[in-house]
Amino acid sequence: MPNDKKTIENILIKNRIYIAIIAIILIILCIQNIYFIIPSIIVFTLIIIYTYWTDNKKTTQITQHIEELTFSIDSTAKNTLINSPFPLAIIETDGNIVWKSISFVNEFGNVDIKNILDNLAKEIKTEVENNDSKSIDMQIKIEKKDYKIIGECLKKKQKGIKKRTEYMVVLYFIDNTEELSINQKYEESKSCVGIISIDNYEETMKSLTTEEKPQVLAKLEKSIYKWAEVTNGIVIKSERDIYVLIFEQKYIETLKENKFDILDNVKEIKTEGPLQITLSIAISQDGETDYEKYKTSLATLDIALGRGGDQAVIRNGEKYNFFGGRSIEVEKRTKVKARMVAHALEDLIQESDDVMVMGHVNGDIDSIGSSIGIYKFAKTVGKPAKIINNTYGTTLQDFMEEVHKQEEYKNVIINNNQAISEITDNTLLVIVDTNKGSHVEVPELLEKTNKIVVIDHHRRSTDYIENATLTFHEVYASSASELVTELLQYTTNETNLTTFEAESLYGGIMVDTKNFTFKTGVRTFEAAAYLRKNNVDILRVKKWFQSDLESYNMIADVVKNAEIVRDTIGISIYNKEDENANLICAKSADELLTINNITTSFVLGIQKNKVCISGRSIGDINVQLILEKLGGGGHIGVAGAQLEGVTLEEAKDLLIEKIDEYFTEGTN
User: Fold this and answer.
1) Who wins on pLDDT, 368 or 90?
2) What whole-number distance in Å separates Cα of residue 252 and Cα of residue 237?
3) How many Å apart are CA 545 and CA 398, to the nearest integer?
4) In angstroms, what CA-CA distances link 131 with 19, 126, 148, 165, 590?
5) Whole-angstrom Cα distance, residue 432 to residue 92?
6) Number of other CB atoms surrounding residue 126 within 10 Å
7) DSSP states along 84-101
8) What pLDDT was estimated at residue 488?
9) How many other C-beta atoms lie within 10 A of the C-beta of residue 437?
10) Distance of CA 482 to the CA centre of its chain
């Protein structure tokens, strides 16, 4: 053993040094007095003899001690391996079993362990080669037991003509079935808190007769309590239209399997009124205490309501699962809320140094028009304001040229860099026509101020802007321009819109309602009537949306090449790679709906190495639910999505797959 030899050599070296020192001293004495020569030789000889004798003795003792110790260690190690209480095996990563302990044989005597070890060896080899790690720590299920496997790669050797590297691994199999079972039971016993909200309570109650109200409410409560029985939890009515449900986490899967059938059950409750009863349900697993889970459940309910209601949302960390949401949205807004938001916005503007307004990336006329409306709101309050815009498509070209002709707006519209350099802690940032932080024109601005206002009409997504000081989010509105128009009517000082400003807002409503045919309510026409008082020239607004002949021909080709799936769904592809592909797709999807028997349309195109999809519907199919499965969003009748890393044909196959899923989920 190298270490043992070094120990002996160190002893011999030290003795030689001492002898050399003694020899030097004796030589010095002999030089000074010649009579010391003979005695010095005798003494030095005796010292040499003694040193030799002691060195041999020490070497023998040390060697014997080392051998005894080595034998003891080897025996202990061997006994430990052989008598290990855990099943232990030494395998090579080529599948060869080198050795198995008695415990291993007893544990897996009735199992086809060879196949299991072969697969395990391949997995370990891949792990070692990819991560350059010699330690093994993994979980495996064998028969009905769970095992934690720990081990170490001891050596490697070259095998075969091609000199493949193989490893030898010592593996311990620790049965942790009971531990995992206890952990699972603990997790399943944790509580979940759900909130059940009656979506259109006020409107429904107003539409019922005095005699009918208690009957409908009794049927509704009976349905809710009966549905909650599967959770073995408790239901508490906290308000006239709110119920709180508390149950154990293990029943979450049961609710998922049943696809929250309560949503369909309550729709079967017949009423004399024109409205259908729907529910919004939010369930949260987030939080250490029931109170924390209740708070996160409330936040989750906002998402369900922000997406139009009639759906259930399960929240687990950053993950959300959605169920339902197939009903057509029913307008249920009050002017009281618009007035309160207008006054709150006015206060926030007065408290701020200035105002910056921005919409979504690749802005449309609704985004720019509503931004102009907020700019006017800020100027009415007496604060400086800027509009951030850096991206827009060809359809906005004419409109943006008109904006730049306006004397007041020459220095109002700024680009991204100017916005980043000019924003301060006391700037009020107003976001219009989107609630997604990732979709705004300049996402960096969201981190540079704490004063944020969101005004939007799209269904709320899971990555909505959470830290907004004020939110005016109405999914029943036709457009952001409609919402801003309502706010302008409630400013303390009268807002005097110029003709151009009124036309900008009117254009925003027109583009999102497809000339007042999609998603229009009473409030939509009230907003349009208010704007018309400012001498809006409808023909001039309509010219902003006109397509050139080339674009129109492209749209005609897309419509011509459409194919029909599931009898009423039209799908087509715009093959040309175009920076304005999303606009061509959107217009083509609109045009497809003018064809008899097509109630839903999807058009795919390529824009900046991404596949964009536009979805439209005038029937019972919710295009938002379909495109959400592909990472998109929108409304029940208008939605979009973008896919990366796929071809047009692959994207089309994915779309058809999600359409099939939509119908499968609807029939289960």
Assistant:
1) 368
2) 21
3) 8
4) 56, 8, 20, 15, 52
5) 63
6) 11
7) -SS-EEEEETTS-EEEE-
8) 93
9) 19
10) 31
Strands 88-92 and 569-577: unpaired
Q: Reduced to 3 states, what is the DSSP secondary structure of residue 648?
A: helix
Is the separation of the CB atoms in 103 and 87 below 8 Å? yes
Task: State both tokens at 524.
Answer: 């939509």
CA atoms within 13 A on the CB side of 260: 22
Is the Cα torsion angle 250, 252, 258, 261 positive or negative in sign?
A: positive
> Model confidence at 13, in pLDDT bands (50, 70, 90)?
low
- Of residues 412 and 12, more confidence is placed in 412
| pLDDT class of 565 with cuts at 50, 70, 90 | very high
pTM for the predicted model, two decimal places: 0.59
127's CB contacts (< 8 A; 6+ apart) are: 133, 136, 138
Please state, in angstroms and rounded to a whole number, the distance separating the CA atoms of residues 37 and 43: 10
Taking the alpha carbons of 391, 366, 476, 615 in that order, is the dihedral positive or negative?
Answer: negative
> CB burial class (10 A; 0-12, 13-18, 19+) of residue 45?
exposed
Inter-CA distances, 246 with 189, 297, 465, Å: 12, 11, 28
The CA distances from residue 61 to 55, 318, 577, 600, 638, in Å, are 10, 69, 87, 95, 92
Alpha-carbon 593 to chain mean position: 33
Residue 205's Cβ-side half-sphere holds a number of Cα atoms within 13 Å equal to 11
**Averaged confidence pLDDT in the chain:** 83
- Whether 446 and 471 have beta carbons less than 8 Å apart is answered as no
What Rg value do the Cα atoms of the chain yield, rounded? 39
Own/partner contacts of 414-418, CB < 8 Å, gap of 24 or more, are 414/386, 414/387, 414/388, 414/389, 415/388, 415/389, 415/390, 416/388, 416/390, 416/441, 416/442, 418/386
CB 615 within 8 A of CB 600: yes
Distance CA 333, CA 487 (A): 13
Please report the DSSP string for 14-26 in residue order.
HHHHHHHHHHHHH
Q: What pLDDT was estimated at residue 364?
A: 86
Can you give the pLDDT at residue 71?
Answer: 47
- Predicted local confidence at residue 244, as pLDDT: 95
Q: How long a stretch of residues is the chain?
A: 668
Distance of CA 285 to the CA centre of its chain: 16
Note the pLDDT tens digit of each residue in 356-375: 999 988 888 999 999 999 99
- CA separation, residue 34 to residues 25, 43, 48, 463, 655 (Å): 14, 15, 22, 103, 112
Q: Tokens standing for 299?
A: 């936040």
Work out the number of other CB atoms within 10 angstroms of the CB of residue 25.
Answer: 12
| H helix or E strand, kind and range, residue 77 | helix 37-82
What span, in angstroms and rounded, lies between the C-alpha atoms of 207 and 199? 14
What span, in angstroms and rounded, lies between the C-alpha atoms of 573 and 564?
12
Residue with tokens 């208690």: 214
- Compute the distance between CA of residue 183 and CA of residue 191 in angstroms, rounded to an integer: 15
The alpha helices in 458-611, defined as continuous H runs, are 480-488, 499-513, 522-532, 538-544, 549-560, 581-592
Angle made by CA atoms 332, 336, 337, in degrees to the nearest 5 = 70
- For tokens 């300049």, name the residue: 442
Q: Are strands 191-198 and 600-607 parallel, antiparallel or unpaired?
A: unpaired
523: tokens are 């409030």
What are the CA-CA distances from residue 37 to residues 18, 41, 49, 239, 572 (Å)?
Answer: 20, 6, 18, 118, 117
Separation between Cα atoms, residue 41 and residue 30, nearest integer Å: 10
Residue 8 has pLDDT above 80, yes or no: no
